[in-house]
Design brief:
By secondary structure, the chain is an alpha/beta fold. The protein has a single domain, classed as Alkaline Phosphatase, subunit A. Helices cover 16% and strands 14% of the residues. The longest helix is centred in the middle third of the chain and has 13 residues. It is globular. The model has no long low-confidence stretch (mean pLDDT 87).
Length: 525
Amino acid sequence: MFSHIIIVVQENRTPDNLFGAHAPNSPCGTLGDFPGADIVSTGVGNGTNNCNAVYPLIAGFDPNHQNADWVKDYDGGNMDGFCDGGSAPCQPYSFVRSPDVAAYFAIATTYGFANYMFQTNQGPSLEAHQFLFTGTSAPVAVNGSNDYYWYFVKDNPASATSSGCPINTDLTWIDPLGHTYANPPLNSECYAHDSLVTGATYCNSQTGICDKSATWRYYTPSAGSIWDAPDAIPEVCYGINDATRGGNNIACGTTNSINNGAEWNAHMRISETLDSAPILTDIANCQLQQISWVIPDSAWSDHPESSGGLPLGPVWVSEIVNAVGQSYANSNGACDYWGTSGSQTSGVVQPTAILVVWDDWGGFYDHIPPFSIPQGSGTANNWGCNGPSEWGCGYAYGFRVPFLVVSEYTGTKSGSTYTGYISGACGSSCSNNKFPYQHDFGSILAFAEFNFGLPTIDPSGKNRDADYNAPDWGSLRNNTPLSDFFSLYPSNARPFVPISVNYPQSYFHNYYQNNNASPMGPDTD
């Protein structure tokens, strides 16, 4: 179906927060111009119904969003604890003013928007990025002497720049009963686990490359941070399946082995001062890999304390969309990443799906509870779980996050007109929060596996990862995750509609130079 999938990961929002200015189901006098969206601009907290406050995208505050805050916010399913005991109204009960997110709204209403995308984990960024790359934050190792699939990393380390194989972190772990362990099963986030694109049993001993059958690239502003999931995979970090190196301050890609970090050097694209936007460079040069992860710089991450001070996140994402959609013209016909823009010459037409997801809820209010919270029972390692399976027991699922989908096969066609599509759209009665319109991070992984014919992630054969357990597979696994976003396939591919923005692509290419700035991770938590 697609030659390329781009996974853009933004920061710290919920649908109610990001799109509350367009809430169609709200008594607070907002625009209400997003029909079918299950969004409100009110929040229940401290025993009262609050009209959410309006803030700019870069609001200058950062609501708490560690695992303990998730538990308070959820409040046993009441979804009313987002003030953490403070007085209402408070900052988590807020939505972003409409002009700041106009580009996101254009993407959502032109192409695809999910009412019910849930982050898989009940915690912040480090674990969320692990789930988006490896399908878990639990150390389920290939042929390991211990199988710690019950123990999820629950929170970020104290420092956002202390993560991955080189660091002996101060991570905390959680078991199915919600117990926290300061001394984890392993002393670092480094274990020989499969990811979507790498496999511990696929390594070439001569090259050190451990890829499955898809090319890939991971774009990130800085290595060794909580947002750089490949840092925690030894075959990527070191080019060898040796987790014993973990915590020994051996930098990724600079080992003394014969492979010398070949996997890392082949796939990690670290931002440089001379090129602030390498993903845009690779699209322009027709060098897009089959699967790409795009991690933002702090200046355009959507974090409410963004270092740039400007609402650049929606522009950044839109420029990626526009670069793909206009690739045929911009490359003089060398590649067509949209698929309907120009010549249908074999090898030039390479349709691309752009999946934009936010890594966690950021502490902001959302009115839809997670569709499932499997709880554990038992003692020691003799756990039981109340769900239909043991997957995610004690740490899944988290709150809703926004999710946008862009492709030539995404939208709704009426005659010769194309409009946007909402997964789980609702009319007067919300929510349509049920199969197949429930999605999570595993849906992204599972769709990529389906599209490229990749094996599932779980190396233990116990189905302990998010891809296998994606909620939109269905109980009989007879539905392809995210497939409702591509109903135009194969005969109704749509022409590209650009997203209007105020900054050219060159603004991002030259951002570091023009602003005397250095590459910086998306935020501090």
